[in-house]
Automatic annotation (TrEMBL):
Protein name per Swiss-Prot or TrEMBL: Similar to Saccharomyces cerevisiae YLR222C UTP13 Nucleolar protein
WD repeat intervals: 97-138, 139-184, 185-226, 372-406, 421-459, 473-514, 515-556, 557-598, 600-632
Compartments, as annotated in UniProt: Nucleus, Nucleolus
Chief location: nucleus
GO cellular component: 90S preribosome; small-subunit processome
Gene3D superfamilies the record matches: YVTN repeat-like/Quinoprotein amine dehydrogenase
PANTHER family xrefs: TRANSDUCIN BETA-LIKE 3, TRANSDUCIN BETA-LIKE PROTEIN 3
Biological processes, Gene Ontology terms: endonucleolytic cleavage in 5'-ETS of tricistronic rRNA transcript (SSU-rRNA, 5.8S rRNA, LSU-rRNA); endonucleolytic cleavage to generate mature 5'-end of SSU-rRNA from (SSU-rRNA, 5.8S rRNA, LSU-rRNA)
Organism, scientific name: Geotrichum candidum
Length: 795
């Protein structure tokens, strides 16, 4: 068997949170999406899921943003009162202005991407030229915070309108050509949250927190209320959709209305009949969380995009051709990742337990995820079957569930809850499935709970049945943190807050060994698949390796600065991966004396979860920061790269020796500079200046002068760093000054100013240059003293 190559280098690929609530904007073609995450804006390709740009904020929360319909600009506003305009697609900041005297709450851009309207908390509405950045209108009249804005107009028309809604419960319709208010519409008793014009501009709909949709006639000078539709929920958004867009509705000539609000549903209304056509509820019926709809984004025509934004930071793409069925479910923020594991035959999916009752199944490399809904409280632990088809979940609701994920992988439907298990008297905190491959469901489930017991469950063969406990054992004196089953299904282990790890006979359920040595609670335990050893991670900041033969501690690995929360084996059992409360992931060499092969840092909070791939190409970590990181093993590629670099280095050093031997000083200096060998470079310059003196040369050789003049900026910067270092020493300062003279003679100030960090370099060179200059002046003065003394002596 070939020698096992230990893993030392890893490349991080991360799924990061990109939406923390607030405003979402999508370009008219449905390709580009902008989302807010605290003070940061993310630009994402909505079709491929690729993160295109991350725009850092000014430290204040983003209040609103908009992408121009033609995708030419992105405009953001924050609590700092700044309105920033970015040129797309490069996301380059082109303008920053103070928009209002108070934060901008809402924003809208007209269909031609020419004008942008902003509504402030002080009640003013301003209209700006998007490209020029100057104010075109300052509209006042509202008596409260501006809560909704909507443009209407078409290219080539001279009739441009803007509707604005406020928490004074009134709607104002403005004529932007004449810069005046055409009408004040008074029909709401609470904040107006949504406005939209019909395609022909004759109707305006408004929705508010007073639980009604109002339909207004705005075609005449005397605008009036046509009808009011009670919707029985506080609304946050309303919008028209194209006539005929909802294919299942028989009347293809009417523009239907989409509405969303506090009850977490997207509903469709026919304003002519004032009846609800369709409604789909997005809440998990098993969860106590009250998820609402914060916005609905509709892009009509050939795009046909319908995106519902939920208050739990989830985005749902709905299918208008299939009665608002969910086409895609996108999570903007998974929240705290409590546990994770690979699923699927080829491990192309990832199951994660977050701080919610839902388990999410992610397709790696995609924005989409599916949801396993069944628990009524936070899911504490998950485990997969050997073939990746079955997933067991354990919840704070004392419930254990077994899921068949095959329909999800096949694309034929959602995952099926195969069976449920009840019997624990407290939260179920640890779970493990059988480790042998079967044609049907796994053989058994082992669970551990805060009721201090462990249970072995017999899994029924048929779907929908309730599993029974084969045995129950009191396992520990404090809460159980983790359970793992041996690869041969003969043993299992449990770890607890009582600082103990116990080894159990799986068949009888009797304890056969106790592992003592940790000084604090043991958070994680894992069997090796290749040796008779167990790895544990503890709150005492250590990883320990234990023998299954005599239950003794073989090794202790120290290096984490906080609790070790998860451990896993990799590299055929030759290495241990650990995740800690210090936000670090560490890789340890089992055969060494506690050597840490690699420390990986891509999390900003505790790393709770860790899962290694069966093919050992890497592993995945999830933390309290909501970041999921796949650590791809690139050790072999790095080894090959290092070998190539060393071979190239040896070849170039031999080439340098040849240049020196042949006294080819020009090429020797250029090569020594490119190799970044300061000592050899200094010796070469000294050799040139001491032994050569061509007329008109600064360094001693005209060819060397020219070589300095032909250096690119990167090499000039490198040479200036050497000048800075040599200039600090009186012995080497003449060489430094000579080279500096050559650089200044052959490179203009404008060219040198383009060097990054030039100011810092000059600040390092200047004081010593002044000191050397003063010393030379003193020596010159002293030489005159000698001349004077000799003259007085008549010598």
């Amino acid at each position: 068997m070939a020698d096992i190559q230990l893993k030392t280098s890893f490349k991080a690929k991360a799924v990061e949170p990109f939406f923390s609530g607030g405003k979402v904007s999508v370009s008219q073609d449905g390709k580009l999406m902008a989302t807010t995450f605290q003070d940061v804006v993310y630009l994402t390709d909505l079709i491929t899921g690729e993160k295109l740009a991350k725009i850092e904020g000014d430290g204040e929360v983003i209040t609103t943003l908009e992408i121009a319909p033609d995708s030419s600009y992105l405009v953001t506003c924050s609590r700092s009162l700044q309105m920033k305009t970015y040129k797309l697609p490069e996301a380059k900041l082109v303008r920053t202005v103070k928009a209002h005297e108070s934060p901008v709450i809402v924003m809208a851009i007209d269909p031609t991407s020419t004008l942008i309207a902003t509504g402030g908390a002080e009640g003013a509405v301003k209209v700006w030229d998007l490209e020029g950045g100057y104010t075109t209108h300052n509209l006042r009249g509202h008596g409260g915070i501006i809560s909704a804005l909507k443009f209407w107009g078409r290219q080539g028309m001279n009739n441009w309108r803007l509707a604005s809604g406020s928490d004074d419960c009134k709607i104002r319709v403005w004529d932007l050509v004449k810069s005046k208010c055409l009408s004040v519409l008074d029909g709401h008793t609470s904040v107006v949250r949504g406005l939209d014009f019909s395609t022909d501009g004759r109707l305006l709909i408004s929705g508010g927190r007073d639980r009604v949709i109002n339909i207004w006639n705005v075609a005449t000078s005397k605008m009036n209320l046509i009808s009011t539709i009670p919707v029985f929920q506080s609304l946050e958004t309303v919008t028209f959709i194209d006539a005929g867009a909802l294919t299942s509705y028989e009347n293809k000539d009417v523009q239907l209305i989409l509405a969303g609000g506090e009850n977490g549903s997207t509903s469709v209304w026919d304003y002519k009949t004032a009846k609800k056509v369709l409604e789909t509820n997005h809440r998990d019926p098993h969860s106590a969380e009250e998820t609402g709809v914060s916005d609905i984004i509709y892009k009509g025509g050939d795009i046909g995009l319908l995106l519902t934004i939920l208050t739990d930071e989830t985005l749902l793409e709905l299918d208008l051709s299939k009665d608002l069925n969910i086409k895609r479910r996108i999570s903007g923020n998974h929240g705290e990742i409590i546990d994770c594991t690979y699923v699927g035959e080829d491990e192309s999916y990832l199951a994660i337990a977050t701080n919610s009752p839902e388990v999410r199944i992610l397709k790696w490399g995609s924005l989409e995820h599916s949801v396993l809904a069944g628990h009524t409280d936070i899911v504490m632990a998950i485990d997969r079957s050997v073939d990746g088809r079955w997933l067991a979940t354990a919840g704070k609701d004392r419930l254990v569930m077994l899921w068949d994920l095959q329909p999800l992988f096949d694309g034929t439907g959602e995952a099926i809850c195969h069976s449920t298990y009840t019997g624990h008297a407290d939260a179920v905190t640890a779970i493990a499935l059988s480790r042998t491959l079967t044609s049907g469901p796994p053989e058994f489930i082992i669970t551990g709970s805060n009721d201090l017991t462990i249970k072995r469950w017999t899994i029924p063969r048929k779907d929908g049945e309730v599993g029974k406990a084969a045995y129950t054992r009191k396992a520990h004196e404090k809460e159980i943190n983790a359970i793992d089953v041996s690869p041969d299904n003969k043993l299992f282990t449990s770890s607890s807050q009582d600082r103990l790890v116990k080894v159990w006979d799986l068949q009888s359920g009797e304890s056969i060994g106790v592992l003592k040595g940790h000084k604090r609670s043991v958070w994680s335990v894992k069997f090796s698949h290749f040796d008779k050893v167990i790895a544990t991670g503890s709150g005492d900041k250590t990883v320990k390796l234990w023998s299954l033969n005599d239950f003794s501690c073989l090794k202790t690995f120290e290096g984490h600065t906080n609790s070790v929360l998860k451990v896993a084996f990799t590299t055929r059992g030759q290495q241990i991966v650990s995740a800690g409360g210090d936000g670090l992931v560490k890789v340890w060499n089992v055969k060494s004396d506690g050597e840490c092969a690699s420390t990986l840092d891509n999390h900003e909070d505790k790393v709770w979860s860790l899962a290694a791939r069966e093919d050992e190409t890497g592993f995945i970590s999830g933390g309290g920061d909501g970041i999921i990181t796949f650590w791809e093993d690139v050790s072999e590629a790095e080894r090959l790269k290092d070998a190539e670099t060393r071979a190239e280095q040896i070849e170039k050093e031999q080439e340098l020796d040849n240049y020196v031997f042949n006294k080819d000083w020009k090429n020797a200096i250029i090569l020594a500079l490119s190799l970044d060998q300061p000592y050899k470079l200094l010796k070469l310059f000294m050799e040139v200046s001491n032994n050569n003196l061509e007329e008109g040369s600064i360094t001693g050789l005209v060819a060397v002068d020219r070589a300095i003049g032909e250096l690119d900026l990167e090499m000039v910067a490198r040479l200036l760093k050497r000048v800075r270092d040599w200039n600090t020493n009186g012995r080497t300062s003449p060489i430094a000054q000579m080279i500096l003279h050559a650089i200044l003679c052959h490179h203009s100030v404008d060219t040198l100013s383009q060097i990054p960090g030039l100011i810092q370099l000059v600040e390092g060179i200047l004081p010593y240059s002044e000191r050397h200059f003063n010393r030379m002046e003193e020596l010159a003065e002293e030489s005159f003293t000698i001349d004077f003394a000799l003259k007085q002596m008549n010598i």
